[in-house]
Amino acid sequence: MQHFDLPGLAQERPLRVLLVNAGEPDTLSWSGLYQPLRMAAKIVGPDRLHVDVRSPDKFAGDVQRPWHLVLLVADEAHAGLRPAYMRNLVERCRAAPFWGGVGAGVLWLADAGALNGVRTALPWSLYAEADSLADQALFTPNLYEIDGRRLTCCGGAASIDFALTLVEMVFGAGVQAQVKELLCVDRVRGAHERQRVALQARFGALQPKLSEAVALMEANIEEPLSTDEIAQLVSISRRQLERLFKQYLGSLPSRYYLELRLQRARQLLGDTNYSIVQVGLMCGFSSGSHFSTAFGALFGKTPREERQRKLGQ
């Protein structure tokens, strides 16, 4: 996959971000995305960040102006109100170096084939409508995804976390901290944190064994179960369990479990005063070096660096 440097967008002067609002202006998906970006633009100044808004029809017809990041936004309640000029909308989005969707906008892009082979965060409430697309886009239960130059977010309250993460990636933790203070936000949820009901909504009826296995993992963070133990508890073979995880979650059970524990560790590092050793033990790591190595491999920083970053904010 070609590498795209999202933090490198800070070098653009000004960085031009366009939000295509295909829903109502007072939805949580829209305001959660727009307000943090608008505040960041005020903090860094118009010479560094310009955030603009277009309706779908105006954006589809506006072929002259270049944008660095374009996001198609709509609340999931508007999923059936697909805008006209959808083909033009997709073509215009793909013309930007970075582009994607939020809420129902994700479903529309996936339905147009624009997210084939891409890790995609889709609102859990739209899984039923996306069943026919499951072999194309790689739907995940995560709050948001940044895969190459494609960005997707499940919308709702996660739009705030998504927008604040973009602010930090492009302009740094200092700017993000100022926006968080203005919004009275204590913690920004990470990209790998999951929609709470997404797995049950997507797999509960069709793949109950998978849902049971994930629930066991979530309930046993401090004393992790082995893959064989999980398979035995849900009454299937290890091979069947691995096949379910690979097919529906794109990961082996052991890897998925490890990421769950590390996400919990990251939350504890930011939200509590437990020592780093205590956090590691609480998340099932008996060795400090193993905890540090695994944490760094997933998040690109050590637990100590993560704690210092949170303290600095």
Automatic annotation (TrEMBL):
Boundaries of every HTH araC/xylS-type domain copy: 211-309
Keyword Phosphoprotein: no
Pfam families attached to this UniProt entry: HTH_18
Xref: Gene3D superfamilies: 3.40.50.880, Homeodomain-like
Alphabetical UniProt keywords: DNA-binding, Transcription, Transcription regulation
Single annotated GO MF: sequence-specific DNA binding
The keyword Transcription regulation is assigned to this record: yes
SMART domains noted in UniProt: HTH_ARAC
InterPro entries for this protein: AraC_XylS_family_regulators (IPR050204), Class_I_gatase-like (IPR029062), Homeodomain-like_sf (IPR009057), HTH_AraC (IPR018060), HTH_AraC-typ_CS (IPR018062)
PANTHER family with a match to the protein in the record: HTH-TYPE TRANSCRIPTIONAL ACTIVATOR RHAS-RELATED
Protein name: Helix-turn-helix domain-containing protein
Classification of source organism: Bacteria, Pseudomonadati, Pseudomonadota, Betaproteobacteria, Burkholderiales
